[in-house]
Amino acid sequence: MTVQDVRGKEFRLSDGTRLQDLLDVENGYISARIVSDPELYELEMKKIFARVWVPIAHVSEIPNKGDYVLRYIGDEEVIVARSEHNTIHVVLNACTHRGMPVCRSERGNSSHFRCPYHGFTYRQDGQLIGVPAHKEAFGEALDKELYHLVQAKVAIVYGLIFATFNDNPPPIDEYLGTMKWYLQMMLQHTPEGMEVIGVPQRWVVKSNWKLGGDNFVGDAYHTFMTHYSAVQLRIVPSGDPKFAYYGVHVSHDNGHGLGLIGAPPEVELPRFYGVPEDIAKKIEATLPPGQQKAFERLAYIHGTIFPNMSFGYFSWATEDGKAPGSYLTLRQWVPRGPYEMEVFTWVLAEKEASDAWKHLARETFVRTFGASGMLEQDDAEMWSNITRATKGFIAREKLNFIYRMGINRKPEQGDWPGPGTVYQGDYSEQNQLNIWRAWARLISE
Hints:
Blueprint: H1 3-9, E1 23-24, E2 29-31, H2 38-49, E3 54-58, E4 67-73, E5 76-82, E6 88-92, E7 107-109, E8 112-114, E9 121-123, E10 128-130, H3 134-138, E11 153-157, E12 160-164, H4 172-176, H5 179-187, E13 194-196, E14 201-205, H6 210-218, H7 223-226, H8 228-232, E15 247-251, E16 257-262, H9 277-286, H10 289-295, E17 298-305, E18 309-316, E19 325-335, E20 341-350, H11 355-368, H12 374-389, H13 393-398, E21 400-402, E22 421-424, H14 430-444
Antiparallel strand pairs: 1-2, 2-21, 3-12, 4-5, 4-7, 5-6, 8-9, 9-10, 11-12, 13-20, 14-20, 15-16, 15-22, 16-17, 17-18, 18-19, 19-20
Helix pairs in contact: 1-14, 6-14
């Protein structure tokens, strides 16, 4: 999508402001109003979250029949459950009688969900199976077949559960496009794939939900300043600003994108840096040559699946110069109004890995990300203060964010083996602009 596509629609907010006046993607300027406007927030819930595929859980969180977790699509709560038939379902957590949540526990195992208000009872797949005093209270006036819980469509991609309430969504493969190649590389690089270790950590940040995805999809530039304490401790690379030269940014249709950073060519690294030898052998036996080539020298992968799930595959140094521990983290930026989000963050490791390796992965994750992680707290401080500083009238009217890093850089495949629109180097804001293009297209439709 180009800016001209948005201009052609002449989409206006209630005060008459044109969408084209809030973002100029071609020249790299985005109005601060976009991250601090209540009207835009309501449009996002309606035009983005109600229409697109949203990743919300991982199959390893509900391995058994009857298992369930509560998650969110936009700001609406859903139940993700595995039925007695071993199928996965996502339903709105609201009784069809009066809208009361039928599930009150964050996770568990149950054969049914019963509304505490009037007792309507539903199976794990959302089918209405019980109505107290049905005959006496309703007679023939209530057909149970018409009042099942509101169902979402579900797709599973390498263990990641996507859902949408759009009645006619694009096929999931079409929605993900070339991003799927990279999801396979991260989530299915061994025969059994990745599994979630423990339960997701959750906390609230007084930040607009879009800032997390914007950061993860392409902002290597903030590392030396925001995470300077981690640089001093040598948890992240030393203060060499060229570290982000040794990587690529890859943009995909529909707003998805990621950055991949390796080591300088002259630095010798073991193949599949940061994973134990037994897992490295499984990667060699599982991934095709192109994905192996992309993966074998990487230290960091960061990216975002539009609209609100980011990920990081990181190999961090451990204490006292020990060998690095690597892990995959998934993180969902759950909207809680225009000025607040709840962060869900998972840590994953290869299912076949030893218990000792999984423990190291979680330990490394907790030290860096998660509610108490050094890097997480740095980022939350930035995002919450951006949101605070841009709430006011003057900031919303006069402040434009600058997205001009790499603005004139042309896509260059080079010897990169993966698909997508490739930009050499990790100092770029093309991925962020790609997100804003997708955002503007959906808001204006």
